[in-house]
Amino acid sequence: MPLVSNKVVTIERHIIEQEEGSDGATGDFSALLRDLTLAFKIINREVTQAGLVDALGATGAQNVQGEIVQKLDAFANTVIYRAMDHGGHLCGMASEEDADILPIPDHYKRGKYVLLFDPLDGSSNIDVNVSIGTIFSILRRVTPENTPGTLEDFLQPGYKQIAAGYTIYGPSTMLVYTAGRGVYGFTYDPSVGEFLLSHDRIRIPAHGTIYSVNEGNYHKWDRRMQAYIDWAKSDIPEENKKAYSLRYIGSMVADVHRTLLYGGVFLYPADIKSHRGKLRLLYEANPMSFVVEQAGGRAGDGKGRVLEIIPELLHQRTPLIVGSPKNVEEVERFLNAD
Ligand code: AHM
Ligand code: MG
Question: Which ligand is closest to the CA of 135, given by its number?
Fold first, then answer.
């Protein structure tokens, strides 16, 4: 993958340059992404301090600033809402943490986009210092301008996304996004407080040798899914195939990020307990599928393309198979077998 050579490009500059090249650009969209970036920086600050909360906030209930210590996912949720409610770019938001649409307060201007987000994905990893992430998706509203956003604005298929991406809080913090013209990755430099372009035009390998799935669910899967996993971890000399490696972090952002860079496949299939899988279509599957497709990958639910699913519910779940095009085809071959 080509690393950027000599130019230092902040995410802000990059977004502006991208928007300048598109028809009918008003700067509105750049400003929206800029506001979102601020929220990610604040969340990053808190996530990287997480282990210190107990040490510093000895009384338990308050941190060093005298604020009530919130759980990190609730904190991230509040930060994104507060960073985005007054910019004038959105007519509503929806979060994995909230049952209903989050309205824009009446005293703020309403804009032409809606934002959907998972404020801190990978909840089981939050307290153990393992990579977690924020996922976002932006759609253009379909209801009349200057009115409050309604469910109709949110329940749009994933191929209508204007932009999507994620921030991964790991050994370093990275923001990866697409606005429909390729995928770009920025690494956060805390010393200057900026996300700097580090991964230009990311392309996923056509095929990889890693599969990523919670194999503890094996006995709850359909036999076709079991057959794929059995095949994936087998040496098959007549096919010239070696056993794939298994990597599973349990944070979708981290597992998909690795898949994007190294190739392979990430799966969260349906099982006998969860007939529609676990992951949420609007906050998790759609944005990650958009990113991976834009990088040359593929994303399906076992029946068709994830981005073509017509959502019926805000918190709808979907099975997900996402990654290198050839790996996803391999899975689909098994799932479509008799
Ligand atoms: P969350 O939104 O509660 O964090 O759940 C989503 C996460 C994904 O990041 C991850 O891929 C998956 O749940 C892991 O689930 P499991 O623990 O069943 O393997
Ligand atoms: Mg989640």
Answer: 2
Of 145, 180, 199, the domain-final residue: 199
Residues 6+ apart with CB under 8 A from 239: none
Query: Any residues with Cβ below 6 Å from ligand 1, and which?
Result: 96, 118, 121-124, 214, 250-252, 255, 268, 278
Strand partners of residue 178:
164, 183
Parent domain of 242: 210-335
Does residue 131 sit in the same domain as residue 179? yes
Summarize the confidence of residues 141-156 as an average pLDDT: 97
What's the CATH number where 129 sits?
A: 3.30.540.10
pTM, entire model: 0.94
Domain presence at residue 204? no
Q: How many CB atoms lie within 10 A of CB 146?
A: 10
Q: Are residues 235 and 191 in the same domain?
A: no
Confidence at 57, pLDDT banded by 50, 70, 90: very low
Phi, psi angles (nearest 5°) of residue 282: -80, -30
Rounded distance from Cα 59 to ligand 2 centre (Å): 30
pLDDT at 257: 98
